[in-house]
Specification:
Layout (H helix, E strand, L loop, with lengths): L5 H17 L4 H8 L3 H14 L18 H12 L14 H12 L5 H10 L16 H15 L8 E11 L25 E9 L4 E6 L5 H14 L4 E5 L8 H8 L6 E5 L10 H12 L8 H16 L2 H10 L5
Parallel strand pairs: 1-4, 4-5
Antiparallel strand pairs: 1-2, 2-3
Length: 334
């Protein structure tokens, strides 16, 4: 059973005073018995005489009237949907301070940052981590790829061709976001060597969840990529459809010569639209390795990093459903 609200016991006290008065008690005695002042009892008796026992009941406070009308509140999502740049803010990012300025400019009403958070939350908005995308993206080309080009390429499976996605990345000694225990209020400082030393990696994944990855200390160039493709020829039987981005090392003269000298008999290369890493499921592999398999990992040197990366690769190779989920995230699998 819930405890009575604050207003409830006060109401009962007023009703008790009224009841005692009906039994002939003096106001002075009622005040002493209930632990209140005589003036309070006098006010209650006056209310009782004018409105009866109903006047002694508690009436919840209505609170202050909202400064924005219902119609004005309903306009907030529409205002924010225009994007922050429409209000001359730099970057399409909404903060409580920016929203407050838009509301004040539009309706002439000023709200605190905390209250702004409650308002936009009621409007169905929430704080989210934005997905960064290059402004040079060609959305029309991406839509064409998703709706026409990929459905046509997917038929390669029916022709017994293996579909591969290939990508390169770097693994640095400088760690990504690291979490560690520390005293509350004292943000820990992680001292790391300021170096650009890194390991380069190239990988391929299939729709079936197969992963193959090479790691080296030098950056990948066209010749190194060709070496990786030769290894794929030995590991994969039959024709191959390879999908990757438009990196210069993928479009170089060396790659073209490699195709002309016999590789084209088994290998078909397909280039993804520019600035669209979200179309390459291999990007999900890098993200998983860096944030999950190697998350919160600080390495001493490149040799240590190499050992940990190879171990992470071997762990991931046995997680076929994780690998397949990267293709599913790109909507290549249902």
């Amino acid at each position: 059973m819930e405890a009575p609200r604050k207003a409830d016991w006060r109401e009962e006290r007023r009703k008790r005073a009224w009841e005692l008065k009906q039994h002939g008690w003096r106001q002075k005695d009622i005040a002493y018995a209930l632990g209140v002042s005589e003036s309070a009892v006098s006010q209650w008796m006056k209310r009782g005489r004018e409105g009866g026992e109903e006047a002694l009941k508690a009436h919840p406070s209505k609170g202050t009237s909202p400064r924005l009308t219902v119609d004005e509140l309903a306009q907030i999502p529409e205002l924010l949907a225009k994007g922050a740049p429409a209000y001359r803010f730099r970057g399409d990012v909404w903060t409580a301070k920016r929203v407050a300025k838009v509301i004040e400019k539009t309706f002439g009403v000023h709200y605190s940052r905390d209250h702004i958070g409650r308002l936009i939350h009621k409007a169905g908005w929430s704080r989210q981590k934005a997905i960064e995308r290059a402004s040079q993206r060609n959305e029309s080309a991406i839509q064409l790829w998703q709706q026409e080009r990929w459905p046509a390429l997917k038929k390669a499976e029916q022709e017994s061709r293996t579909i591969l996605w290939v990508d390169e990345t770097g693994f640095y000694l400088l760690p990504m976001a690291v979490r560690t225990w520390a005293l509350r209020g004292q943000t820990p400082i992680l001292k790391v060597p300021l170096t650009r030393d890194h390991l380069s990696a190239i990988s391929e994944i299939t729709l079936g969840g197969r992963l193959f990855m090479q790691v080296r200390k030098q950056s990948y160039d066209s010749q190194a990529v060709i070496g990786f493709l030769r290894v794929l020829f030995r590991k994969i039987k039959g024709p191959i459809l390879l999908i990757w981005d438009g990196s210069p090392i993928h479009r170089s003269k060396e790659i073209k010569v490699f195709l002309k000298t016999g590789a084209a008999k088994r290998l078909q290369l397909e280039q993804l639209p520019g600035y669209a890493p979200d179309l390459n499921p291999d990007e999900g592999i890098w993200n998983y390795l860096k944030r999950v398999e190697m998350g919160n990992l600080c390495c001493f040197d490149l040799d240590h990093l190499y050992q940990e990366l190879i171990r992470a690769r071997e762990r991931l190779r046995h997680k076929r459903e994780i690998i397949r989920s990267c293709s599913r995230q790109c909507e290549y699998l249902e």
